[in-house]
Amino acid sequence: xxxxxxxxxxxxxxxxxxxxxxxxxxxxxxxxxxxxxxxxxxxxxxxxxxxxxxxxxxxxxxxxxxxxxxxxxxxxxxxxxxxxxxxxxxxxxxxxxxxxxxxxxxxxxxxxxxxxxxxxxxxxxxxxxxxxxxxxxxxxxxxxxxxxxxxxxxxxxxxxxxxxxxxxxxxxxxxxxxxxxxxxxxxxxxxxxxxxxxxxxxxxxxxxxxxxxxxxxxxxxxxxxxxxxxxxxxxxxxxxxxxxxxxxxxxxxxxxxxxxxxxxxxxxxxxxxxxxxxxxxxxxxxxxxxxxxxxxxxxxxxxxxxxxxxxxxxxxxxxxxxxxxxxxxxxxxxxxxxxxxxxxxxxxxxxxxxxxxxxxxxxxxxxxxxxxxxx
Length: 375
What we know:
One of its GO terms (molecular function) is oxidoreductase activity. Pfam families: adh_short. Keywords: Membrane, Transmembrane, Transmembrane helix. By secondary structure, the chain is α/β, with parallel strands linked by helices. The protein has 2 domains: 55 residues, no CATH class; 282 residues, NAD(P)-binding Rossmann-like Domain (Rossmann fold, 3-Layer(aba) Sandwich), CATH 3.40.50.720. Helix content is 58%, strand content 9%. It has a 7-stranded parallel sheet, sandwiched between helices. Strand 5, helix 8 and strand 6 form a beta-alpha-beta unit. Helix 2 packs antiparallel against helix 3, helix 6 runs parallel beside helix 7 and helix 7 runs parallel beside helix 8. The protein is flat. The chain starts with a helix and ends with a helix.
């Protein structure tokens, strides 16, 4: 009886039970926060040790000073990094709750005590929404929210303003988890699908941010964008997704500079490629899209590419439908961006391989990169 209940709870949250439950992903946000201070400790140790020796005040070595400064600095950084806000009385809006990753975040924040507004593209008759409501607290509010619909976004903003926790002036956090995944090489993707991808991933997120900014500004809150490693990694057959993810990251970088003087924070969570695929890519949707794309190609295009090549390209995406995405690492990063008193701008719950590949893609000569990382 107990195992079944546990499995149901894991299913609701979006987490998978697997032998690979222990995260292989590295807490890069902590490492990124420590790099510059440790470098400064090293420089300070050399300068102070040299000055003390030159003035014959002390013969202390630079190594001893470096160790001392590092211990003090690391302790200070960990204390600074671990400060959190109280979730009680704070409201969070999360879009794209059809995805298991977004549902996992909703459940986690609801358990902490946040008032969560969960946005669904199709709320009516949604089994996921019904299950979420049954297993969550009374603070959870379900919303019909399609980010391509101006009317639904306006209605959502009014509903949220009217149902904020007592005494709260505004919204604490807006988390963009909604995504439309367009698959295939550019020539295969129908233009309506291409347009919808940008409408949902970029324009919808931008417009919803515009509408919610007064509430977020009143609450001195923050905006969190869920991105993917594909924003930095070239990936044929997923070029449209790469473009939209890069666009949303560029938008977030500029938005952060615009809103910092208004005491509104902005963070990006650049999720692992497999995590993002598991959250946003469904095997049935992939096969349906592939069938539609092939049917819309002209005879000349079909002869040029061939059915075997087309099928092989689509099959290359199967690992992102069945892979064991580490939702826990991504949910932890998203919740950190919401909970931390001083969140970092960019969270990267990535594997070491993905982190290295991103650095290589940005700084390595393209010819060498293409040889080392064949797409």
